[in-house]
Amino acid sequence: MKQTLRPRRMRISEGVRSLVRETSLSVKDFVYPIFVVPGEKVKEEISSLPGCYHLSVDEALKVAEEVVSLGIPSVEVFGLPAYKDEIGSSAWDMTSPVQQAIKAIKEKFPELVIIGDVCLCQYTSHGHCGQLCGQYVDNDETLKLLAKVAVSQAKAGADMVAPSDMMDGRVAAIRQALDESGYQNVSIMSYAVKYASAYYGPFRDAAHSTPQFGDRRSYQMDPANSREALKEVALDTAEGADIIMVKPALSYLDIVRQVRGTTHLPVAVYNVSGEYAMVKAAAANGWIDEKRIVLETLLSMKRAGADMIITYHALDAARWLAEK
Ligand code: PBG
Ligand code: ZN
């Protein structure tokens, strides 16, 4: 007798499905990005990122409180400084919004894991991620500045620093500077695999970090390449990275899978601004079921191999997961 193979038996009820489910999504997977600005009592919605805000430090504390109450383990802090110059010196100014926010949040919520984004593009007058030499970003001069940014964030109380600049050798430079300053326990989440992507558009509006000339293709990766991703991972691992990030997430899940297969380090993905904005726009038009789309998308990132997800959906997703 011909026997029909019946995989549907493993889908017959929620109980069975839950027993055989391979991947899970939890509030403990999330990192919530916040944008801090100078001033007081500032809470302005970012038009390109509906549901996300420019926050002064006092307002950022309220958001941190919400993050903690939802059980989200971590925030990543981005800043818009009070001033910009050629070398981005407000990036390591202890009175800048990022350093002030890190300090205030750490004091009030010591258990919350605070990650500082280490880059210069929000702080330079030209909007590039490093110090210029003519039209070109000078790699080795930039390393010295990035090290200062990382140390200033560690000094403010950051648990981790996350360099997003894509200079060569930055992980080693930052590790050395942190160690020399007594911050051996501050970890480095490296944006090891960061592509030159159109998906960062809404973030650049939010962070006022659009390059004033040219683009970032001489430092961020070519979207056509995957072997290069593995090379970046190997280098950052050798330089002492603690966590490897792949960014963007959604259209790079093949890369996440490959990176997962080659590193023993935890893998983070950044569900970037353009990915978020597309979902929000379609949802606002009633074209998609936002909750289901978001939870399915985040789950797919876990399935591809991510251990953690940096996402603007974190607050909503945390609430939806708690309902289930
Ligand atoms: C800055 C930085 C960017 C993002 C994080 N850090 C933008 C860029 O490289 O242009 C993108 C985040 C997002 O789009 O959500 N180095
Ligand atoms: Zn940058």
UniProtKB/TrEMBL annotation:
<dbReference type="Pfam" id="PF00490">
    <property type="entry name" value="ALAD"/>
</dbReference>
<feature type="binding site">
    <location>
        <position position="119"/>
    </location>
    <ligand>
        <name>Zn(2+)</name>
    </ligand>
</feature>
<feature type="binding site">
    <location>
        <position position="216"/>
    </location>
    <ligand>
        <name>5-aminolevulinate 1</name>
    </ligand>
</feature>
<keyword id="KW-0456">Lyase</keyword>
<feature type="binding site">
    <location>
        <position position="129"/>
    </location>
    <ligand>
        <name>Zn(2+)</name>
    </ligand>
</feature>
<comment type="subunit">
    <text>Homooctamer.</text>
</comment>
<feature type="binding site">
    <location>
        <position position="273"/>
    </location>
    <ligand>
        <name>5-aminolevulinate 2</name>
    </ligand>
</feature>
<comment type="similarity">
    <text>Belongs to the ALAD family.</text>
</comment>
<dbReference type="GO" id="GO:0004655">
    <property type="term" value="F:porphobilinogen synthase activity"/>
</dbReference>
<protein>
    <recommendedName>
        <fullName>Delta-aminolevulinic acid dehydratase</fullName>
        <ecNumber>4.2.1.24</ecNumber>
    </recommendedName>
</protein>
<feature type="binding site">
    <location>
        <position position="121"/>
    </location>
    <ligand>
        <name>Zn(2+)</name>
    </ligand>
</feature>
<feature type="active site" description="Schiff-base intermediate with substrate">
    <location>
        <position position="194"/>
    </location>
</feature>
<keyword id="KW-0350">Heme biosynthesis</keyword>
<dbReference type="InterPro" id="IPR001731">
    <property type="entry name" value="ALAD"/>
</dbReference>
<dbReference type="GO" id="GO:0005829">
    <property type="term" value="C:cytosol"/>
</dbReference>
<feature type="binding site">
    <location>
        <position position="232"/>
    </location>
    <ligand>
        <name>Mg(2+)</name>
    </ligand>
</feature>
<feature type="binding site">
    <location>
        <position position="312"/>
    </location>
    <ligand>
        <name>5-aminolevulinate 2</name>
    </ligand>
</feature>
<comment type="pathway">
    <text>Porphyrin-containing compound metabolism; protoporphyrin-IX biosynthesis; coproporphyrinogen-III from 5-aminolevulinate: step 1/4.</text>
</comment>
<keyword id="KW-0862">Zinc</keyword>
<dbReference type="GO" id="GO:0006783">
    <property type="term" value="P:heme biosynthetic process"/>
</dbReference>
<feature type="active site" description="Schiff-base intermediate with substrate">
    <location>
        <position position="247"/>
    </location>
</feature>
<dbReference type="InterPro" id="IPR013785">
    <property type="entry name" value="Aldolase_TIM"/>
</dbReference>
<dbReference type="InterPro" id="IPR030656">
    <property type="entry name" value="ALAD_AS"/>
</dbReference>
<keyword id="KW-0479">Metal-binding</keyword>
<keyword id="KW-0460">Magnesium</keyword>
<dbReference type="GO" id="GO:0008270">
    <property type="term" value="F:zinc ion binding"/>
</dbReference>
<keyword id="KW-0627">Porphyrin biosynthesis</keyword>
<comment type="function">
    <text>Catalyzes an early step in the biosynthesis of tetrapyrroles. Binds two molecules of 5-aminolevulinate per subunit, each at a distinct site, and catalyzes their condensation to form porphobilinogen.</text>
</comment>
<feature type="binding site">
    <location>
        <position position="204"/>
    </location>
    <ligand>
        <name>5-aminolevulinate 1</name>
    </ligand>
</feature>
